Amino acid sequence: MRTFMLSFAMLGVASVSAAAQSIGGTYTVAGTNFDGSKYGGEATITLTSDTTCTIHWETGGSTSDGICMRNDDAFSAGYAMGKEVGLVVYKIEKDGSLHGLWTIAGQNGNGTEVLTPK
User: Fold this and answer.
1) Nearest residue to 97 via CA among 82, 108, 77, 113
2) Which DSSP helix (H) or strand (E) runs through 14?
3) How far apart are CA 98 and CA 74, in angstroms?
């Protein structure tokens, strides 16, 4: 029984690492701005460890870069776009898509964003 439990625990650790690694890649972006207008583009997530990464967006004619982190089905990123600093928090769905809300420091409201794996 002890060996079984240890093997099961090791399997759990392996699946967490595999899940964390599966977040890297290129995504199609579909979002809404604070005013409800829509935008689209592409995002690329590059892993830097089992739980951390960098993210680069090209949306609506602009680019932004940030750092990101995964915790189970939560995924968050802090980013800079020009002189503005923002935060986005996503929920990782079973199909691999990320559904989130974003905001910019000092501004009221939030936008929405969905990242769909390519």
Assistant:
1) 113
2) helix 2-21
3) 9
CB 32 within 8 A of CB 38: yes
Six-digit token string for 48: 């830097």
Residue 33: DSSP 8-state: -
Question: 0.85 exceeded by the pTM?
Answer: no
Give the pLDDT score at 22.
Answer: 78
Q: Which pLDDT band, with edges at 50, 70 and 90, does 48 fall under?
A: very high
Q: Give the pair of three-digit tokens for residue 11.
A: 């399997």
* Residue 86 to residues 18, 45, 77, 89, 110, Cα–Cα distance (Å): 28, 17, 8, 10, 10
